[in-house]
Amino acid sequence: MPNEAPRLLFVHAHPDDETLTTGGTIAHYAALGADVHVVTCTLGEEGEVIGDRYAQLAVDQADQLGGYRISELTKALSALGIGAPQFLGGPGHWRDSGMDGSPGRNHRRFIDADMDEAVGELVAIIEELRPHVVVTYDPDGGYGHPDHKQAHRVTTAAVAAAANGGWAVPKFYWTVMGSTAMRAGLKALPEVPEDWIRIDIGDVPFGYTDDRIDAVVDASAQLPAKVAAMRAHATQVTVAADGGAFALSNNLALPLLGEEHYVLVSGSAGERDERGWETDLLAGLNLQ
Q1: Would you call 67 helix, strand, or coil by DSSP?
Q2: Digit-coded pLDDT (tens) for 46-62
Q3: Which of 20, 80, 182, 284 is the most exposed, fewest CB within 10 Å of its CB?
Q4: What's the pLDDT at 87?
Q5: Which residue ranges make up each domain of the chain?
Q6: Got the DSSP string for 111-150?
Q7: The predicted structure's pLDDT at residue 206
Q8: Least confidently predicted of 87-91, 158-162, 201-205, 237-241
């Protein structure tokens, strides 16, 4: 490790997003001794609940899912090797907006947040933590969830505002799904539960081709930590017994990949491999 401990900040929309999209990366850098933080924008109150055990927590029943998901997130982050959750504006300040077409159940929906307030909250965190790397979603929010898109907008604005206020984030990335890796993973899927649905890459329209990717983190050594973190999000994720695949509430069988992909939005790229990819989000930074 360099003399100065690297600091990385991941901004996510709901509990479980940090694990599903960047869990291997979080665990990788935590294991190296980096100072890694996750900011979550909502409690994920609108999530669909898997199974019967906690079904009555759902939004159309007791509407207590958000509070329970704090405990899931706490366990997941511990499994990944980092500290307690941090919520934008505090726990429950903004509510999960639900998917497009969901009823506007509450005026505190994240998509309705005052942008100055939301950006200001994240700027304060950035200025306090002074991260060398910030990660969030692409403009489409990965798969299009309104809160993911809002997290992108808020984070992008906050990174720009923080630069004017005293901390210019050296490297800003989007977390993206690599189509080539996903295609290979889908083809190599092990045996999965009989009620899971096998799909092919054509059913996953939001991936990035290799030429659009700037960085990859090989987190295969951290797969056990990522599996444990996924299992901590038990209301949202089911992991196959062998840890090789997982499914959300839609029961689509997805591979649990050992690498995670990124697009560099701002900052200077470091050393690249033969594919033209960085293999370290900290590449090119002077942390001596």
Answers
A1: helix
A2: 999 999 999 999 999 99
A3: 284
A4: 99
A5: 7-266
A6: GGS-HHHHHHHHHHHHHHH--SEEEE--TTHHHH-HHHHH
A7: 80
A8: 201-205
CATH for the 7-266 domain, from 3.20.20.100, 3.40.50.2300, 3.40.50.10320, 3.80.30.20: 3.40.50.10320
Q: CA 231 to CA 238: how far, in whole Å?
A: 7
Give the sign of the dihedral formed by CA 143, CA 148, CA 152, CA 155.
Answer: negative
Asked if 257 contacts 143 with a C-beta cutoff of 8 angstroms, the reply is: no
pLDDT of 10 above 80: yes
Q: What are phi and psi of 208, to 5 degrees?
A: -110, 130
Which position has the token pair 């304060």?
124
Q: What is the pTM of this model?
A: 0.96
Q: Which amino acid is at 166?
A: G
| pLDDT at residue number 82 | 98
Give CA–CA dist 169/261, Å, rounded. Answer: 20
Residues 2/55, Cβ–Cβ less than 8 Å: no
User: What mean pLDDT, rounded, does the chain reach?
Assistant: 95
